[in-house]
Amino acid sequence: MPLITIALRAPTGNTRIQIDDSSTLTDLLSLIQTKTSIPSFTLKSGFPPTPLDISSPSSPLSSLNLKNQTLIISPSTPTPPSPSPPPPKFTPKPIEQDETSLLWPSRAGYLLLRVMPDDNSCMFTAVGGALSLPNPSKLLRSQIAEYILTHPTEYNKAILGSDPSVYVSRITEPDVWGGAIELSILSDIYDVEISSIDVKSLRVDKFGENKQNRIIIVYSGIHYDRIAFAMDLGYPVEVDVTKWSTEDDEVLEKARELCKRLQGMHYYTDTTDFVIKCGICGWIGQGMKDAGKHEKETGHREFGEMRIE
């Protein structure tokens, strides 16, 4: 019997298999399980990838026309229970998953926005995840603090806005935000350009130019997310591509294209005049200036944006 060759794309890597043309879909699924060590999965084929019907395991492979095709294997994972709603934070407008990705035909995959938790460490999580660091917030805060103390000329009171020892003490607290100073330092520590795209203006701020590689994050006024590439939207975050050559300007333009879509959905907060409410005492104010004043007076640090429809 003739053999047919099928290419497999899986989170565990790419490979090829050969199988008898007279085999059934059950035989193919069993062979894929053996080759990839993935016990449960869905299959997609073509481009853009479309789901392959595997509801009839006894179907002959000859009826599926899979010769010289590429199958994308996406592991099936149980849906986790919904977490309890978090306390109000500064949160951009919610968006659906299909609004956060762009099909990229020339690279046979998708550029997408990975949305970070609203826990005051979004910048550290966005950067750390792009650098493949586990639980990055505490690590990056500590590294930044050490860097500031060992570079007193570069990071002095005039640059930091406060005494370095005070600044270091605050930045190591888990509820203190990171920004441009921290991005510059992390660029030096990890020898990578960090390109930050502002959703409201589509401006690209580059921290650490003249590096060989870059990561891309998205700034929406009070929140950071990161840009990633995936061959399939069903792939887990762990196999994302999040680092590119700084000579690859196409990925930066594609990221700006995605941010333009987000801009059209108002996925940003104007920090000068947005109406905010304290999640602890119910106080209502306007803009970051008022929020800072309320925090200084009360110590409250949980704020939500009040939207007027």
From TrEMBL:
Q: Give the reaction(s) catalysed.
A: Thiol-dependent hydrolysis of ester, thioester, amide, peptide and isopeptide bonds formed by the C-terminal Gly of ubiquitin (a 76-residue protein attached to proteins as an intracellular targeting signal)
Q: Identify the EC number(s).
A: 3.4.19.12
Residue numbers spanned by region Disordered: 72-95
Annotated compartments:
Cytoplasm
Note the Pfam families from the entry: OTU, OTU1_UBXL, zf-C2H2_OTU1_C
GO molecular function ontology, one term from the record? cysteine-type deubiquitinase activity
Q: Which domain of life is it from?
A: Eukaryota
Query: In its keyword annotation, does this UniProt entry include Zinc-finger?
Result: yes
Q: Does the keyword rRNA-binding apply?
A: no
Q: Which UniProt keywords apply?
A: Cytoplasm, Hydrolase, Metal-binding, Protease, Thiol protease, Ubl conjugation pathway, Zinc, Zinc-finger
What spans are recorded as compositionally biased (Pro residues)?
77-91
All copies of domain OTU, residue ranges = 111-230
GO cellular-component term (any): nucleus
Gene Ontology annotations of biological process type:
endoplasmic reticulum unfolded protein response; ERAD pathway; protein deubiquitination
Instruction: Please give the function described in this protein's UniProt entry.
Output: Hydrolase that can remove conjugated ubiquitin from proteins and may therefore play an important regulatory role at the level of protein turnover by preventing degradation.
Protein name, per record: Ubiquitin thioesterase OTU
| Originating organism | Podospora fimiseda
